[in-house]
Design a protein that fits this description.
The protein is mainly α. It has 19 helices and no strands. Helix content is 70%, strand content 0%.
Length: 478
Amino acid sequence: MSTLNDSSQKQPGDLERRIGLRSAVLFNMLEMIGVGPFITLPLIIAAAGYKLSVWAWILGAVIAVADGLVWAELGAAFPRAGGSYAFLREIYGPERAGNWLSFLYVWQLSFSAPLSIASGCIGLSSFLGWFWPGINHAPIAALPGLHYSNVAAAAACLLVMLLLYRRLSVVTGTAWVLFVGVIAAMAGVIVSGFAHASTTGGWHMPPSPSMAVGAAVGGLAQATLIATYCYWGYYNITFLGSEVKQPEKTIPRAILLSVVFVAAMYVVMDLSALPSMHDAAVHVKESAILRLQLVAEIARSAFGQWAGYTVAALVMWTAFASVFSLLLGYSRVPFAAAQSGNYFRFLAAVHPRHGIPHRSLVALGLVASIFCFFSLQQVITMLVITRILLQFFLQHVGVMVLRVKRPELERPFRIPLYPLPPLLAMAGFVFILIKRSEAIGGLAVAVGIGVTGSIIYFVRAKRLGQWPFADGREMTSN
């Protein structure tokens, strides 16, 4: 660890350690509190019902903490760029199965990361409907599926990419400015919800129709899956591991603090909105624009039209900040894979002046901007299932495998109550995977991504003489 922190031994092409605890928590929370909670709030209430919706946020937080402890131990032990990519290579062996599983992780990331970034941009453009009523119109009659909102989303993605094309010190300053708007958006929704409740006789739980036990469990599972998506981002700092100061302390603290802070905000936001969301289930069946604008509608009902415009603008700001953090973190993954020779070497470059992985940043930003022109229906479910199967489960098993295979490994942070947290996280993920309706379709997509990625890896590995075709030859890079 002293070698990692010694600037005198910094090699050309390495990234500098400039991120402290406050900035680490900031980057995590920027990714966690994106457009997701504002869009999914009515979806969670509609899926779980009024009484169970709060429990969906709480259960999601419990899963996030249990999973976060796994990230904390691995992130403190292997503070390198790429996060899961570095973890999987170390756990399963860089010249053995770890080479395959880390490649598979980057392969699934080529789908999930651009879709995550694009979903934030599309959410941002959807709230433009408050200011630009014609944004959902098609500018080209021959292409009815192409709307002005798609163009606006792609433009937002490219703008974020340009803002990140700077030194990390400048990026950090920009992140703090964006974070002010994020907190203002959360506060605006919470205050509006309680204010609206006070004008209608005070806070009260809306009457809920009775549900069979099976339906209630299935609804809670679906709601928890969506809530899990909203929590994701507490691990963002591990992708920047090689740029974190004192990573053995900073990474675990940043993960746990960000989950606690965000969970408190989500629960309070849900409670504030419940009295105003009695028709959430009806709105969910309406157009995407009406569903997205529900939180702004609460503000308008409480304080007038100006409040609706203000909250809509703040949610757009929040979505922009989330995309900012997403692209910042994920751009380090292809860079780390390329540096280790397990991805295209072209992406391993570090900008000579800004000190950032600029080619990886631009490549990911361009792909995400293209995804802005596609429909993202059910994208949350696809993202969650794919990452659980091809990333999180591998890490949960891996952290236990590593305890057995390498007990002598220095672990600056050790999971408390081990092995309960990884087992609890896996149990929670299994619950939301199999108890929700239409679970087979989502699982099939994730399996398809895994199978195609594995085929590509083994064809490539045979050509390059990598595991399992090494035959004593040295690992080569493309």
